[in-house]
Amino acid sequence: MRLKNKVAIVTGGGSGIGEATCLRFAQEGASVVVVDKNGSDANTVVSKIKAAAGEATGKDVDVTNREQVDQMIHDIVSKYGRIDILINNAGITADAKLEKMTEEQWNKVINVNLKGVFNCGQGVAKIMKQQGSGVLLNSSSVVGIYGNFGQTNYAASKWGVIGMTKTWAKELGRYNIRVNAVAPGFTLTPMVQKMPEKVLTMIREKSPLKKLAQPIDIANAFLFLASDEANFITGTVLSVDGGVVL
Q1: In a domain, 245, yes or no
Q2: Which DSSP letter does residue 164 get?
Q3: Which residues are in the Ketoreductase domain (predicted)?
Q4: Which residues does the annotation mark as catalytic?
Q5: For residues 24 and 125, what is the distance between their CA atoms, to the nearest angstrom?
Q6: Are 128 and 134 in contact (CB under 8 A)?
Q7: Number of folded domains in the chain?
Q8: Is 204 inside a domain boundary?
Q9: pLDDT of residue 246
Q10: Backbone angles phi, psi at 146, to 5 degrees
Q11: Is 154:95 a contact under the CB 8 Å cutoff?
Q12: What is the pLDDT of residues 170-213, one digit of tens each?
C-alpha cells in the first residue's frame, strides 16, 4: 500500500475527481478526510470507504471560510495527530464571454478556486512544517495553461494555482514538503457531463486518444504525486489531458 499510515485531506471530495481520489487513496491505505461544502455528499463517500474496510472522516467545510478551514485542520490534527497530504481539489465554474461576465461570476470563481486553495494550503503548511514533511497537491486545469473560450475567470484562477504551486515549492522544500499540481483535461465529472453532447464530441475529436478522462485517471495522477515514488518531484505541473493540446 503506497499511502499506508498517511493522513490525507481531499477538498471537493464529495463527487467527481475528488470522490475518485478519496476512494483511491483509501484503497492505498490512507486515512482520508473527505471535505465538501455539501456534507451529505462527503458522508456518502465516507460510507463507501468504510464499506470497503477503509478509514475516513467527513467534513462539511466551505474552503472560502477561513474559520471553518482552521477548525477543520484543528479537528484533524486532534484526531489523527498529523496531516501528510492535502489535495486542493475544490473548484467551480461560472462561464461567460468576457463582455458578458458579471462581477459576481468573477468573484465567485476566484474566491473558491484561488482563495480556497490559499486558505487550505496556508493552514496545512503550518502543520507540515512542524512535522518536517508533507505533500501539497493543487488541482489546476489544462484551461489554466492554454485558456478556453468563455472561461476568463476559471482560466485565471487555474493559472493562479500554478503560480502558487511553484512559489510554495520554493518556500517549503527546505522543510521536506513537496508541492505539485495536476492539470486535468476535460474529465467526465457531473459538471462536464452537463455539457451538450456535440461539445463533448468535439472535445473527444481533439484528443489523439479520442476520449475524455475518467475521474480515476486524475485520481491516479494524484496518487503517484502523493506517494514516495514521486519523492524527488516538486514544483511541477502534471498535465493529464489525453494529449488534447498537442
Answers
A1: no
A2: H
A3: 6-185
A4: 154
A5: 23
A6: yes
A7: 1
A8: yes
A9: 58
A10: -115, -5
A11: yes
A12: 999 999 999 999 999 989 887 777 778 888 888 888 889 999 99
Sequence length of the chain is: 246
Overall pTM surpassing 0.85 (yes/no): yes
Cα 241 from chain centroid? 15
Cell of 23: 476512494
In the numeric block, the cell 462536464 is attached to 192
SS3 state at 189 = coil
Strand locations in 92-225, DSSP E? 134-139, 177-184
What nine digits make up the cell of 150? 468563455
Nearest to 10 by CA among 58, 66, 78, 55: 58
Q: CATH no. for residue 53? A: 3.40.50.720
Q: Is 246 among the domain residues? A: no
Domain coverage including residue 124: 7-239
The region that residue 113 occupies, defined by phi over 0 for left and psi between -120 and 50 for alpha, beta otherwise, is alpha
DSSP state, residue 230: G
| Residues lower than pLDDT 50 in the chain | none
Q: Is the dihedral of CA 95, 18, 189, 211 positive or negative?
A: positive
Buried b (16+ CB within 10 A) or exposed e, 45-58: bbebbeeeebebbb
pLDDT, residue 8, reads 99
